[in-house]
């Protein structure tokens, strides 16, 4: 499966098989998470791999997401906010750490999908409470988690809007139906104006190149 297909069809689950994920596969998933883009290249993230049933139940209770108990493995993503603060300042540190965590979780989910695993994003929980439960040092905060497992009934995300309802061309509000989904522009004049302008630009470049050669 291509990266494009994986991104569009990430598998989620309601229930997972009672099957342990191989250590090598978990290692690949974690490496993908570690290589996520980081604001200012601070690399503020750490990970706790949770597989103990009691710990998984405790995390499910604290976050309010019972699907955590269905998966054999959950990766808790922890942000070192003071470390990020030194680079981006106090007002932006938490947002920057959240951004890095989101990149990391998406990387992990893509690699999980590539290994025939379904996954769910867990977020919106109280990081301080979760941190206390998992003995996270002061100053470091659990931000997100990703639960991973094999499932016989995978789901894929449903999208409410088509691309042309969320994508504009050159400036906000200039909607096309769509140059990205098929050449169904709103108005033939607009199509001629844009593509005509590009064609003229290419002609001018070619003429200049020919003059340089001759």
Give the fraction of residues assigned to helices. 40-55%
Shape: globular
Structural class: alpha+beta
Q: State the end-to-end CA separation.
A: 49 Å
What is the makeup of the main sheet?
Answer: 4 strands, antiparallel
Write the H/E string, N to C. Answer: HEHEHEHHEHEEH
* Number of E-state strands: 6
Strand arrangement, largest sheet? 2-3-5-4
- Low-confidence stretches are 183-188
**Rounded average pLDDT:** 87
The total of helices stands at 7
Radius of gyration: 23 Å
Estimate what percentage of residues fall within beta strands.
15-25%
Describe the protein's topology.
Elements: H1 3-8, E1 11-12, H2 23-34, E2 45-50, H3 53-63, E3 73-80, H4 81-88, H5 90-114, E4 118-122, H6 127-133, E5 140-149, E6 155-156, H7 188-213
Helix pairs in contact: 2-5, 4-5
């Amino acid at each position: 499966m291509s990266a494009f297909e994986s991104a569009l069809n990430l598998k989620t689950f309601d229930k997972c098989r009672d099957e342990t994920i191989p250590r090598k596969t978990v290692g690949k998933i974690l490496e993908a998470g570690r290589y996520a883009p980081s604001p200012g290249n601070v690399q503020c993230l750490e990970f706790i791999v949770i597989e103990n049933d009691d710990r998984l139940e405790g995390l499910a209770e604290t976050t309010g997401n019972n699907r955590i108990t269905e998966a054999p493995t959950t990766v808790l993503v922890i942000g070192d906010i003071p470390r990020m603060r030194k680079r981006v300042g106090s007002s932006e540190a938490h947002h920057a750490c959240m951004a890095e965590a989101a990149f990391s979780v998406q990387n992990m989910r893509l690699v999980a999908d590539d290994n025939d695993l379904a996954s769910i994003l867990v977020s919106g929980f109280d990081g301080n409470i979760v941190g206390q439960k998992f003995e996270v040092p002061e100053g470091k905060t659990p931000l997100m988690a990703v639960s991973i497992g094999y499932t016989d009934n995978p789901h894929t995300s449903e999208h409410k809007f088509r691309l042309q309802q969320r994508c504009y061309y050159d400036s906000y509000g200039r909607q096309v139906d769509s140059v990205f989904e098929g050449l169904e522009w709103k108005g033939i004049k607009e199509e001629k104006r844009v593509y005509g302008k590009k064609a003229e630009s290419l002609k001018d470049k070619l003429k200049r190149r020919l003059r340089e050669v001759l």
